[in-house]
Structures are given as structure tokens and as C-alpha cells.
Amino acid sequence: MLRAVYPGSFDPVTYGHLNIVERSCRFVDELIIGVLKNRTKIPLFSVEERVGMLEEVTRDMPKVKIVPFEGLLVDFVGRMSAKLVIRGLRAVTDFEYELQMSQTNCKLSPGLETVFLTTDPEYAYLSSTTVKEVAAFRGDISRFVPEPVMERIQEKIRKKESVNNEQPY
Ligand code: PNS
């Protein structure tokens, strides 16, 4: 049985991520989406919100399980008894960081393999960061994220704006 971990921040999940999930499910028996509770980055969504959105949009994918994690990826992969890490590669600019990460993980946990799936050209430009930026300026993000995710982003941005507007100058 081949169990793989697809780790990331998923702040929030995009169609680009879902493309990697769907394609991974064609060759793994179980795919654990590991959602990083990152202490260094300040995410737009809490880890619980990110997990909730992922659960909603992968509801019809029986091989997929969503699990939050903290700390080192290699430890999480070990706890999940997984054999493989999956990452998406959008462009050459991703490559250096991904190579460094996979080699570090391999040193920390000898034998742990990372499989890279090149993103479909349709999603090569897409990142959670650009989605948040477009949404913040009221741009149309319906082609970037599934509808429930779009609604959450818009709601979050509305809330942030109303809080900021209430602050005295
Ligand atoms: O979606 P992201 O932010 O590109 O995902 C990055 C992630 C979560 C895969 C990476 O930051 C990670 O694995 N973090 C856990 C800490 C860790 O293991 N670091 C050592 C590897 S260099």
C-alpha cells in the first residue's frame, strides 16, 4: 500500500493544489494532505480553517485525508507511516527551494523520497499569495479557487476591512 504526504501551507487551497491532489490519487493508495501550522508566517486563515476548506473541497476523493502538523515534515511523514512526499513544481523559480527542501529531508530521513509533479500549464501562474492579493483588491478569483474557498476569502477580507475601519486614526 502506497501512502504519500502532500504537505503545504494551503492558505488557502487553490485549483493548482487540487490539480496535484487529483493527479497524485491516480498513483497512490492514500494521500495525506499535511497542513502546516506555521509559526513564522502569519497566515490569512487559521490551520483549522485551512483544514476545513480542504475537507470540503476534497469530500468526493476517498483516498484523501487532511491532517494538520507542526514541526519537521520528516517527523510528520514518519508518524503517518508514509513512504513518499509529493510536491508540485510550477516553474524553474520553484526548483531551487524544492531541491534544497527534498535534499534536506532526505538527509534527515534517509530513504524518504520526494516526487515532483509539474503543475498543469493552466495553473502554472497560480499561488495562494496571488489569490489573496487579487481578492484584497476585489478582483475576480473564481477561476483560481473553488466557490466555498472564494466565499471564505471574501468574508475574511470584509471582516479585516471592517476591523481596520473601526480603528481610530
Ligand atoms: O505551501 P508551502 O508553504 O510552500 O509549504 C512548505 C512546507 C510546509 C512543505 C515546508 O515549509 C515544510 O515542510 N515545513 C515544515 C518544516 C520542515 O520540515 N522544514 C525542513 C525542510 S527544509
Walk me through the structure.
The protein has 169 residues and is of the alpha/beta class. The protein has one domain (3-125): HUPs (Rossmann fold). The protein contains 6 helices and 5 strands. The protein has helices at 15-24, 47-57, 73-79, 92-108, 128-136, 147-166, and strands at 3-8, 30-36, 64-69, 84-89, 113-118. β2, α2 and β3 (64-69) form a beta-alpha-beta unit. The longest helix has 20 residues, at 147-166. Residues 7-9, 36, 72-73, 101, 104-105 line the site of 4'-phosphopantetheine.
Observed structural traits:
binds 4'-phosphopantetheine, 5-stranded parallel β-sheet, 169 residues, 18% strand
Offer a quick outline of the entry.
By secondary structure, the protein is α/β, with parallel strands linked by helices. It contains six helices and five strands; from the N terminus they run E-H-E-H-E-H-E-H-E-H-H. It has a single domain, classed as Rossmann fold (3-Layer(aba) Sandwich), CATH 3.40.50.
Number of strands: 5
The radius of gyration computed from the alpha-carbon positions, rounded to a whole number of angstroms, is 17 Å
Which architecture does the CATH hierarchy give at level 2? Answer: 3-Layer(aba) Sandwich
Can you write the helix and strand succession as a string?
Answer: EHEHEHEHEHH
Q: If you average the pLDDT, what whole number results?
A: 94
CATH class: Alpha Beta
Secondary structure blueprint with pairings:
Elements: E1 3-8, H1 15-24, E2 30-36, H2 47-57, E3 64-69, H3 73-79, E4 84-89, H4 92-108, E5 113-118, H5 128-136, H6 147-166
Parallel strand pairs: 1-2, 1-4, 2-3, 4-5
The structure holds 4'-phosphopantetheine.
Residues 7-9, 36, 72-73, 101, 104-105 line the site of 4'-phosphopantetheine (PNS).
